[in-house]
Design brief:
The protein is an alpha/beta fold. The protein has three domains: 44 residues, no CATH class; 48 residues; 193 residues, Rossmann fold, CATH 3.40.50. 53% of the residues lie in helices and 11% in strands. The longest helix is centred in the N-terminal third of the chain and has 48 residues. The chain starts with a helix and ends in an 8-residue tail after the last strand. One of its GO terms (cellular component) is membrane.
Length: 322
C-alpha cells in the first residue's frame, strides 16, 4: 500500500511538475484536500483586521460583506487616491488663480468706468468751453443739443449745432465746432465704457464743403464718416449749391435720419448781418438767398428746420487755438 501511494505521488509529481504539493494531501478516499486554506485566502481580510474565512465572521458579515485586498491592488488604490488628490489640488489652485484674475480685471474695469464717468461731465465741459470762449453768449445751446442725444439710449435724431460767423471769426468758429464735437465724443465714450459698448474714435470726422462737390459725393462722404466717427464737422455749408444741400435732409431729419446716435456740427460764414441779429435769422437769410433759386423756398425751409434749430453766432475778438 505504501509503495502504491509513493508511486501515485511520484506519478502526480511528474504530471504536474509546477504544482507545489506541500499544501495538499490525499485522503484515504483519494480526495485532494487543501492543507493550509489561509495561505491562499490571506489577501482577503475585513476592514477591521478579522479573518473573513472564520465561520462566525462570515455569518456576521453575510448581510453586508466587506473585503479589502491587502495585496498590490490595495497599493494601487492608495496611489490612485493620492493621484486624484494631487489633481484635485492642482485644479483648485488653477480655479483660485482664475478667480483672482477675473476679480482683478473687473476691478480695473470698474475703476476705469468710475474715473471716466467722474472726469467727463457735460456741465463741466460746457463750463470750460464757456471760459475759453468768453465773448460767446450762447455756448449753453451746445450743451443742450448734446444732452438731448446722450441721455437717450435710442435717440430719434442726431445732435445738430450750426455756427455762423463773419470772415474775421471763421477760425474761431472752426475751433469751436471741433471742440463741441470733441465734447460729444468724450461723453459718448464715457457712457460706452460704463455700458461696455463700443467706443468712438477720439477725433471727429471733417468735411470741407465747396460749390463743386456733387450730391453723390457728399452723400458718400457723409455715409463714410458717419459710420466711422461719432461726430462729424461740416465746414462751409454756405458753399453748397441747393441741389447738393438736399442731402442734408436725409442725414439730419427729425425722425428718419440715417444715423441717429451722432453729432453733426455745421459752420456757415457771412458778413451780411446786424450785430444784434438772432443767429437763426442770419443763417436763414443767408441760405434762402443761396438755395431758393435752385430748389425753391419750401425745400430750403425744410432743410433749415432740420439744421438750424441750435444756432450760434460766433463773435470775433478772440485768438484761440484748437
Amino acid at each position: 500500500m505504501d509503495n502504491s501511494r509513493n508511486s501515485t505521488s511520484s506519478d502526480q509529481s511528474g504530471l504536474y511538475p509546477s504544482l507545489d504539493l506541500t499544501d495538499y494531501e490525499v485522503s484515504p478516499s483519494n480526495e485532494v484536500k487543501i492543507k493550509n486554506r489561509r495561505s491562499h485566502n490571506s489577501s482577503c481580510v475585513s476592514t477591521d483586521g478579522t479573518d473573513i474565512n472564520d465561520e462566525k465572521t462570515r455569518k456576521e458579515r453575510s448581510r453586508n460583506p466587506s473585503c479589502v485586498s491587502t495585496d498590490s491592488s490595495s497599493s494601487n488604490d492608495s496611489k490612485l487616491h493620492s493621484f486624484k488628490g494631487i489633481n484635485f489640488g492642482h485644479v483648485c489652485i488653477v480655479i483660485i488663480l482664475l478667480l483672482l484674475l477675473l476679480v482683478s480685471f473687473n476691478f480695473g474695469l470698474l475703476s476705469r468706468k468710475r474715473t471716466l464717468v467722474k472726469q467727463v461731465s457735460l456741465k463741466t465741459e460746457i463750463k470750460n468751453l464757456s471760459l475759453k470762449y468768453k465773448n460767446q453768449a450762447d455756448i449753453l445751446i451746445i450743451g443742450s443739443s448734446i444732452r438731448s442725444n446722450i441721455e437717450n439710449n435710442n435717440p430719434t435724431y442726431p445732435s445738430i449745432v450750426i455756427l455762423s460767423s463773419s470772415s474775421k471769426a471763421s477760425d474761431t468758429a472752426d475751433c469751436l465746432a471741433k471742440e463741441a464735437a470733441s465734447i460729444y465724443i468724450k461723453l459718448v465714450n464715457a457712457v460706452a465704457v460704463d455700458e461696455e459698448s463700443e467706443e468712438c474714435v477720439q477725433e471727429p470726422g471733417e468735411i470741407m464743403l465747396s460749390s463743386t462737390i456733387t450730391k453723390m459725393e457728399l452723400e458718400k462722404k457723409l455715409h463714410t464718416l458717419s459710420s466711422q466717427y461719432c461726430a462729424v464737422v461740416l465746414r462751409g455749408v454756405h458753399n453748397l449749391n441747393g441741389d447738393t444741400a438736399l442731402i442734408l435732409h436725409a442725414f439730419m431729419d427729425n425722425d428718419n435720419a440715417h444715423y441717429k446716435k451722432k453729432m453733426y456740427v455745421l459752420t456757415v460764414e457771412t458778413d451780411n448781418y446786424e450785430e444784434n441779429e438772432k443767429p437763426v435769422t442770419v443763417i436763414e437769410n443767408l441760405l434762402h438767398k443761396k438755395w431758393d433759386p435752385v430748389i425753391n423756398a419750401d425745400n430750403t425751409a425744410a432743410i433749415l428746420t432740420r439744421i438750424a434749430n441750435n444756432a450760434l453766432l460766433v463773435k470775433p475778438g478772440l485768438n484761440v487755438t484748437c
